[in-house]
Write a structure and sequence with these properties.
With 254 residues, the protein is α/β, with parallel strands linked by helices. The protein is 46% helix and 14% strand. The protein has one domain: Rossmann fold, CATH 3.40.50. It has a seven-stranded mixed sheet with strand order 1-3-2-4-5-6-7, sandwiched between helices.
Length: 254
């Protein structure tokens, strides 16, 4: 599927992938600054923003959409593999992209890949997420309400205004987590991460736990894990200057 997208800037290609219920607009505060160094392709995943809604919503399908969009837009300076940057769900999609398509580096913003652990917390909200509209919206509020960290009130309001929580899309994305056992999720992640060979930055504003670094690096030997303490789920927006500097310092193109 070709996704709704925009292209800006000039330089090596960088793909930007947003989180669940959001769109490329969530990256708006840093897109122009990224464009000073990169040709930026910012996309709306299927079921988000201006893109079509259509099953399925698994990470491989979403990553394939991103790759098909990159192939279709005619970027003329695509002479090296892209840098792929993803936040939240976009971090999982960026990881899938790096596993199956050429990538010069992957930056995953605050999306732990240990989905078996994610299942424990998400499972408590499953009845609400599968309930009526009011229950679903309550669950979405619970999921995101505690994640903003030190973002300004204006930025929190902007993100909340942008949020498009389509129940069918959300359930489609999280169906694998709901319907799989922890062992099945571990096997799925192991199969996915085995394909990642590019430099991989796992950047967290919420601590993923003491064991996560070893767990990830045992599966992705190229992984660097960083915790920006108390930055919440949006460290790239909390300290955009630091984030932009870190992107360039991690990118093999610079």
């Amino acid at each position: 599927m070709k996704l709704a997208n925009e292209i800006l800037g000039d330089g090596p290609v960088a793909i930007v992938i947003h989180g669940i219920t959001e769109s490329r607009e969530s990256f708006r505060p840093i897109l122009a600054a990224l464009g000073e160094y990169y040709t930026v392709l910012a996309v709306d995943l299927r079921g988000h923003g201006l893109s079509m809604s259509q099953d399925p919503y698994d990470p491989i399908t979403l990553a394939t959409d991103v790759h098909e969009t990159l192939d279709s837009v005619g970027i003329v300076n695509l002479n090296v593999a892209p840098l792929v940057i993803g936040h939240s769900l976009g971090g999982l999609v960026a990881s899938a992209y790096g596993a199956i398509f050429p990538s010069r580096a992957v930056i995953n913003i605050d999306q732990p890949l240990r989905l078996a652990s994610f299942k424990d917390g998400l499972g408590q909200l499953e009845p609400l997420l599968r309930g009526d509209t009011a229950s679903f919206e309550m669950a979405i509020g619970l999921v995101f309400g505690s994640m903003f960290g030190p973002l300004s009130p204006d930025e929190i309001a902007r993100l909340n205004t942008l949020r498009r929580a389509d129940q069918n899309v959300v359930l489609g994305i999280w169906s694998t987590v709901f319907d799989s056992s922890p062992e099945e999720l571990d096997a799925t992640v192991d199969a996915l991460t085995a394909g990642i060979t590019a430099p991989y930055l796992s950047l967290h504003g919420i601590d993923a736990g003491d064991e996560y670094v070893g767990w990830l690096q045992s599966r992705v030997p190229t992984a660097t894990v960083e915790l920006w303490h108390d930055h919440g789920h949006y460290p790239h927006l909390v300290d955009s200057v630091r984030f932009l500097e870190r992107v360039r310092s991690f990118d093999p193109a610079f």
